[in-house]
């Protein structure tokens, strides 16, 4: 059985003092979810070490992930941070391919694939984001679009590594808008992603790969999203910034 993941992407929010207080509260609120739900906090780079130290001090099961990485070990890459740096801080996971990175920083499928391979080499688990715009959704070819992103991101990656990584389906039209795909819409695409992995690798590999939904999952819709057979958790944005809400999302996948 795939262990559910609830990952909080804080984006560019919460300065360090606030992040420390908040991670302490989350650690307390989520203390009971020690065995059946994997919880990951992905704060800004400046908060990573402080949050990690809080979790270590609390002997928490919660893990820490970075929001991005640059796939080079060393060099004149102003403003970037590499895999060794985030691993040294304590990160076990790293988000790549988020729609904001694709849109604002013009990241391509090929670059995201490079990042995925790099993280795997560094023994850091990639959380690979994919998703369609409202325009693509309305045109009706959203399944092909999302599956092409997944195929490009996984290019050249061995099957055993694919089974360990995480895919996060985030329809762009539902990120930060308050809108959310219906449970049926979310399940349709997550199943299509799993079917695509089965086609590229095998059914066994596809059944091991965890697929998250990340389009404005919140306390109002999680009870209908969590039971879907191909949704293995959530990559949470706004609802991850409220400890009580985040705890409720984790509880929904605690089965």
The total beta strand count reads 8
Reported for the largest beta sheet, the result is: 8 strands, parallel
What is the 3D form? globular
- Enumerate the strands of the largest sheet in spatial order, edge to edge or round the barrel: 7-6-5-4-3-2-1-8
Ends distance:
11 Å
Radius of gyration: 17 Å
Low-confidence stretches: none
Fraction of residues in β-strands: 5-15%
SS summary, helix count: 12
Could you estimate the helical fraction of the residues in percent?
Answer: 40-55%
The assigned structural class equals alpha/beta
Rounded mean pLDDT is: 95
- The H/E string reads EHEHEHEHHEHHHEHHEHEH
Overview features:
255 residues, eight-stranded parallel β-sheet
In words, what does this structure look like?
- Helix 1 packs parallel to helix 2 (45-57), helix 5 (109-121) packs across helix 7 (142-154) and helix 7 (142-154) crosses helix 9.
- The mean pLDDT is 95.
- This protein has 255 residues and is α/β, with parallel strands linked by helices.
- It is globular and about 45 Å long.
- It has helices spanning 16-29, 45-57, 83-89, 99-104, 109-121, 134-139, 142-154, 159-164, 183-200, 203-208, 222-225, 243-252; strands at residues 5-9, 38-42, 63-66, 91-96, 125-130, 166-169, 210-213, 233-236.
- It has twelve helices and eight strands.
């Amino acid at each position: 059985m795939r262990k559910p993941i609830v990952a909080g992407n804080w984006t560019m929010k919460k300065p360090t003092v606030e992040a420390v207080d908040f991670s302490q509260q989350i650690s307390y609120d989520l203390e009971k979810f020690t065995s059946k739900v994997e919880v990951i906090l992905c704060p800004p780079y400046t908060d990573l070490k402080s949050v990690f130290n809080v979790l270590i001090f609390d002997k928490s099961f919660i893990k820490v992930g970075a929001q991005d990485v640059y796939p080079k070990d060393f060099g004149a890459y102003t403003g970037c941070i590499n895999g060794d740096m985030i691993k040294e801080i304590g990160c076990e996971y790293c988000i790549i391919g988020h729609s904001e990175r694709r849109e604002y920083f013009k990241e391509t499928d090929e670059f995201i694939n490079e990042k995925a391979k790099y993280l795997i080499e560094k023994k850091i688990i990639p959380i690979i984001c994919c998703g369609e715009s409202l325009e693509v959704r309305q045109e009706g070819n959203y399944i092909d679009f999302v599956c092409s992103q997944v195929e490009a991101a996984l290019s050249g990656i061995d099957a055993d590594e694919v089974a360990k990584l995480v895919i996060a389906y985030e329809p762009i039209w539902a990120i930060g808008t308050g809108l959310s795909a219906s449970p049926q819409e979310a399940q349709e695409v997550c199943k299509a992603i799993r079917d695509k992995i089965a086609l590229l690798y095998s059914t066994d590999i596809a059944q091991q790969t965890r697929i998250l939904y990340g389009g404005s999952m919140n306390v109002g819709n999680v009870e209908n999203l969590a039971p879907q057979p191909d949704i293995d958790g959530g990559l949470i944005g706004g609802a991850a910034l409220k400890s009580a809400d985040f705890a409720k999302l984790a509880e929904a996948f605690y089965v």
